[in-house]
Amino acid sequence: MAEPSPSMISLEEAQALVRSHVSPLETEIVPLLDAAGRVAAADLMSDMDVSPFAHAAMDGFALHVADIAQASPESPVDLDVIAEVPAGGAFEGTIEPGQCVRIMTGAALPSDADAVVKYEIVDYLGSNGMPGSRVRFTAPAKPRANIREAGEEAKQGEVVVRAGEVIKSAGVGFLAGCGVTEVPTYRAPRVAIISIGSELVPPTERPGIGHIRNSNGYALAACAREAGAVPTMLPIVPDDLDELTRMVKDACSKFDFVVTSGGASNGDFDFIKPVVETLGELYMTTVNMRPGKAQTFGVVDGTPVFGLPGNPAAAYMGFELIIRPALLAMQGYTQLERPHIQARLTADKKKKDPRRLLMRATITRGESGDLEVTPAANQSSGLFGVIQRSNCVAVIPEGVTQVHAGDEIECILLDVDEGVVL
Predict the structure, then answer these.
(1) What is the Cα gyration radius of the chain?
(2) Which CATH number does 11-26+187-330 carry?
(3) Which residue intervals define the domain MoaB/Mog in the entry (predicted)?
């Protein structure tokens, strides 16, 4: 277990610290459709061969390869069409030399056929190719051409999705074909969202002088939901030590993760740090990043508690970069970081603060085809709208005071899922 760290730590240390206090939650069985996008908690096996029979990969004619082995435009071969096999049907007779069977995509291959020749390269001799007619072939066919073999995708008893694998939409279809209708997966974490501040009012109210609407709570609940968690917005807590203590303690008894916003700095009415320290163990108070220096993390009665700053951008950055990976880990995911890429800066940027600067920015592709990143003109930590219109975070590292137009800098993509290779 990580030791308490009251001094300022790096973003990477903060991420590792929080990760060290979470693990995948218990498993639950969900209907197959609800498993899309979630992590399989056990190996999943097929209950039969998929497909259980060899079938036609396209509309055409099932035949013996030997019958048209010598076919050519100069010396075509004509065969009698003796039957038609629609999808869902079967031909149980025998294909004699000089015969073929009209067959539809997905239909079971006649047992003695060894190829399917597609319609487009077959000539109909004064007919439509239906049973009782004759058709002409002007080229040979390869054995097993246009046939999907029995068990081509999966064998009975074969593991088709392994534990730890994220089930994609195609995987849902694959599992359905393998007879898997329920999936064991890790339970989604229940996350309590607590907004702190005597100045806060619900969005349904028009704030008076000295008050603001509770936008953070809604943004953080949306972030939690986007991360696959189940958020619950608890009532706004005023700047009152005793009331916040009661709220946090109660939340820790009912939820898997508690997130607060506001009251994370060192003012007279900033109480989340003493609350966590009194109720449990306090592990972190500041992170070397801007916005978002004041980040409180601890554990109360076995439940992680994270105190985010009150400024919207600072709270958002803390959630996105530190809390989100932890919530993903609780659901069994192993890819926990948004993609990081390099892009050319479009304008000079200076910074006086030695902390790592996280600029809300937009990546586009320039006329040359290179990726270019343009930081938003207004980098105030009090703005949500700038984040809404951004698609990345442009990073100026610790210790760097200036970057120039044309420099390649690191960018963290906010609109691309973890694990995506670019």
Answers:
(1) 31
(2) 3.40.980.10
(3) 192-329
In this structure, what token pair is assigned to residue 197?
Answer: 């501040």
Rounded to 10 degrees, the C-alpha dihedral 227/420/346/316 comes to: 10
For 55-148, CATH number out of 2.160.10.10, 3.40.50.300, 2.170.190.11, 1.20.1250.20 equals 2.170.190.11
Q: Give tens-digit pLDDT for 341-364.
A: 999 999 999 988 899 999 999 999
pTM summary value: 0.88
Query: Tens digit of pLDDT for each residue in 242-264?
Result: 999 999 999 999 999 999 999 77
- Residue ranges of the domains in the chain? 11-26+187-330, 29-51+152-186, 55-148, 340-413
* Contacts for 84-92: CB closer than 8 Å, 24+ residues apart: 84/130, 84/131, 85/56, 85/110, 91/62
Question: Which pLDDT band, with edges at 50, 70 and 90, does 270 fall under?
Answer: confident
Sequence-ordered list of residues with C-beta below 8 angstroms from that of 19, at least 6 positions apart, any chain: 325, 326, 329, 336
Query: Of 408, 415, 422, 410, which is closest to residue 12 (Cα–Cα)?
Result: 410
**Mean pLDDT throughout 68-87?**
97
Residues 138 and 84 sit within 8 Å (Cβ to Cβ) = no
pLDDT (tens digit, 9 = 90+) per residue, 196-212? 999 999 999 999 999 99
Within 13 Å and on the Cβ side, how many CA atoms surround 225?
9
- Rounded average pLDDT over 182-187: 98
Side chain identity at residue 228, one-letter code = G
The reported pLDDT for the residue numbered 4 is 42
Distances (CA, A) of 122 to 79, 97, 306, 367: 11, 18, 69, 49
